[in-house]
Amino acid sequence: MPICASIAGFVVWVANRDYLLSDSGLIRHFLFVMTICIVIIFGVSKTNTAQMYFDPQFRLQAELDAHPVYSTIKRISPDDLKALHDFLVLRMSHGETLSYAFLQARPLLTMLTRRQLGFADQKSLLTWGRVAVDTLKVLQAIDPMLCYRAISHQALDSQTLLHAFNADNTKIFQQAIIDVYEFSHRISNPDGSPRHEAIPQDNTPVDFNTAGLEYRAIKETVTQRFGESISGQLAMRLFLELPIEPPEQICAAKIFQLESMLERPQAMASTLLYDNSGIY
Questions:
Q1: pLDDT in the model for residue 216
Q2: How far apart are CA 125 and CA 139, in angstroms?
């Protein structure tokens, strides 16, 4: 209002400085110009360009909506979106960039995606398994204990997340999340029940007993290479906060296990990976 009043006063003075008008005439001109000014400024303020410049909350939300992972989860899973949104807004309110906030959200995104793996197609599961292997290898190269913390689902500190994962690893990780969510949405009815007609023809599952035999074969190989104790930990998927075996051995065994599964045909590999690739 003060801005519009100032503009209106200036315009009325310029337009009428050579004329003698009554007070009522000046007031009418002033109110007319100020009303036009208010309408124009109000209309401009509602444009995306103006709100991006003047409204930090609008700018933040626009930036979030433009991110493919955020927009996918927003469209498919409102419940998961709330957890992700709250985390990202908190980090960005501290002055962090969106890309850095997403790096820090990696453990949260992993947990949310693991809930969707039961609905994922075989190709998405294989992609998720390869991301898991690449992630463990990156962490192993930095510090085997970091690799162990990822296997045991312990939080990684912000500096590790920032420096461990490069742009390529992050891009593949985020695309794997999108693929899992998109497929789970495509094969699910609004009530959550499966739509079997939407499942691809090449997504035929393998026999449970056959998969069990294949898993035991991999377990025996792991036992031969890394010992009974480590093989048992991988089989039970129970890891203490501090490893009871050398972390470099546990990490190497986990990588070997996942790579052995990935070497199998698609249907078999996806079945074996379903319960064994839920790490960062």
A1: 92
A2: 21
